[in-house]
Write a structure and sequence with these properties.
14% strand, eight-stranded parallel β-barrel, globular, alpha/beta, TIM Barrel, Glycerophosphodiester phosphodiesterase family protein, 11 helices, 9 strands
C-alpha cells in the first residue's frame, strides 16, 4: 500500500531520545531549532495586523449577460447578405392551420421558419386584429367588414382552414388580436407587419406603443414601396424602431437604380415584386453589394415573374431553384415547410 510522503516519523522500535536537561524549551527560545519558528510567527502576526488595518475592498460582481433570443439571432442573419437563405411564411404556416391564426404562427415557430408575414387592421372599437381582407367573409363563418365590428363580435367567429372559402372546414381558432399574436411569437421568430384597412398610418401609429410596451420592436420588420411611399419615410416613427425593408416593383426604375437612391434608409432587404425575372436578376448583385438581401415573393406567380409555390410543388428546381440562381436569398411563400426541405437539400439553409 502506498504511503503519503512527508517528514520521517520516529520508528516505533527506536527508543525515545531524551532532551538535554540544560535546555529549557520556550517558543521564542535561543535554541537554534526554535529560532525560525519564532521568526515566522512574528512575521505572520505583523502581516495579520497590517491586513486588518487596511480598509475592506468591495468585490465587484461578475458581469451578467442577457441570453440572445432566437428573434435577435434572426435579425443578425437577415442583416448578413452572405448568410443562409431565409423563409417568410405568408400569413403564417397555414397549410394545416387557418391563415393569420395563432395555430399558424405556433406551427412556424415549431418548424423553425424564420419569419411570418401578418396583416393588421383596427376593429370598430379600435383594437388591432389580424385579418388580410376588409371583410371576414372568406376566412370565417361570418360576414361583414372588420371596421364595422367590435372585438367582441369578431371573437364569436371561427376561422376556416388554410386560405378559407365557403368549402373550407371550420376550426376552433378565433381571430387573434395583434397583441395576442405577438405574445405567442415574442422572441421566437421575426414578424413582418403589413398594415391593412382604410387608414394605414393609423395602424403604424397605434402599433408603435403596443410593440414598445411588449418589448418586441427588435423582432419586427416593416416595408414601404419605393417611389409611392417615399413621402412617408419621415412621417412614420415606427420605421425608425424596426428593421426596415425596401419594397420595389418592376413598373419603376431598374432595381440597381433603386438600390442607389434608397440605400440611405439602410434596408435589410429589398422585397422585389416583378413581372419578369431579368428585372430581378439585373439588380440582385447590387442589392448584395449594398449589404442587403434580395427578397422574392413566389407565393403568387404574378409577384415573381410567373415562378410560384404552386408550380414549385411540381418542379421545385424550375421555380424556387431558378429564383435562387437569380440571386434570391429570402422567400415569401405559402409553402414554408416544403421550401425548408428543398433549401436544406440544396445546402442553402439548415433544416431545423
Amino acid at each position: 500500500m502506498a504511503v503519503a510522503s512527508g517528514p520521517a516519523s520516529p520508528s516505533v522500535i527506536d527508543p525515545p531520545r531524551e532532551r538535554p536537561a540544560t535546555v529549557a524549551p520556550t517558543l521564542f527560545g535561543s535554541t537554534p531549532m526554535f529560532r525560525p519558528i519564532g521568526l515566522s510567527l512574528c512575521s505572520l502576526f505583523a502581516m495579520t495586523t497590517a491586513t486588518a488595518a487596511e480598509p475592506t475592498r468591495a468585490v465587484k460582481p461578475a458581469a451578467t449577460t442577457t441570453p440572445q433570443t432566437r428573434a435577435q439571432m434572426l435579425v443578425k442573419r437577415m442583416r448578413d447578405p452572405n448568410g443562409p437563405a431565409m423563409i417568410v411564411a405568408h400569413r403564417g404556416c397555414h397549410v394545416e392551420a387557418p391563415e393569420n391564426s395563432i395555430a399558424a404562427f405556433k406551427r412556424c415557430i415549431y418548424t423553425g421558419i424564420d419569419m411570418v408575414e401578418t396583416d393588421v387592421q383596427p376593429t370598430k372599437d379600435g383594437i388591432l386584429v389580424l385579418m388580410h381582407d376588409a371583410t371576414v367573409d372568406r376566412t370565417t363563418n361570418g360576414t361583414g367588414r372588420v371596421s364595422d365590428m367590435t372585438l367582441a363580435e369578431l371573437k364569436k367567429l371561427r376561422l376556416r382552414m388554410n386560405k378559407g372559402g365557403a368549402d373550407a372546414p371550420l376550426t376552433d381558432e378565433t381571430i387573434p388580436t395583434f397583441e395576442e399574436a405577438m405574445e405567442v411569437m415574442r422572441g421566437k421568430i421575426l414578424v413582418d407587419l403589413d398594415a391593412k384597412g382604410s387608414d394605414l398610418e393609423r395602424v403604424w401609429r397605434e402599433s408603435l406603443p403596443l410593440l414598445e410596451r411588449m418589448g418586441v420592436l427588435d423582432q419586427m420588420t416593416v416595408k414601404m414601396t419605393a417611389g409611392r411611399d417615399d413621402h412617408l419615410m419621415d412621417k412614420v416613427p415606427l420605421l425608425k424602431r424596426v428593421t426596415y425593408l425596401q419594397r420595389v416593383v418592376s413598373f419603376g426604375p431598374p432595381l440597381t437604380q433603386v438600390v442607389q437612391s434608397h440605400r440611405q434608409y439602410d434596408p435589410a432587404a429589398y422585397t422585389v415584386v416583378f413581372l419578369n425575372l431579368p428585372f430581378f436578376e439585373e439588380g440582385a448583385a447590387a442589392v448584395k453589394a449594398s449589404g442587403a438581401r434580395a427578397w422574392a415573393e413566389p407565393f403568387w406567380g404574378a409577384t415573381a415573374g410567373g415562378y410560384s409555390d404552386e408550380l414549385a410543388m411540381l418542379d421545385p428546381d424550375a421555380n424556387w431553384g431558378r429564383l435562387l440562381d437569380a440571386g434570391a436569398t429570402v422567400f415569401l411563400t405559402d409553402r414554408p415547410e416544403s421550401l425548408a426541405v428543398y433549401l436544406a437539400g440544396k445546402g442553402r439553409r439548415p433544416f431545423n
